[in-house]
Write a structure and sequence with these properties.
The protein is an all-alpha fold. The chain has one domain: Up-down Bundle (Four Helix Bundle (Hemerythrin (Met), subunit A)), CATH 1.20.120. It has helices at about 5-25, 35-50, 65-75. It starts with 6 loop residues before the first helix and ends in a 10-residue tail after the last helix. This is DUF5062 domain-containing protein. InterPro entries: DUF5062, DUF5062_sf.
Length: about 90
Amino acid sequence: MKKHKHEAELVKEALKIGAIYFEKRGAGKFEATDSASNKITAVYRLLVKDGLIQALAKDQENELNMRHKLALWIERQLPDGHPLKGK
């Protein structure tokens, strides 16, 4: 997968929005002590379960690829003209 120019910032935004979605969905609540890795996995799996993103192949399911999927997901959610929107 080709890394996006602003992938780190997009992942940070995806985790912020994903945590809100996670809580509103009733899946739980993230604590300040939860690692970024755990948050990435939890948000990714919930989005896959809800059909909002396509699942990775089992042999491709790792943190790096999950981060990329979350970056792509949040980029599609951003309004036109947003600084992180890569057009």
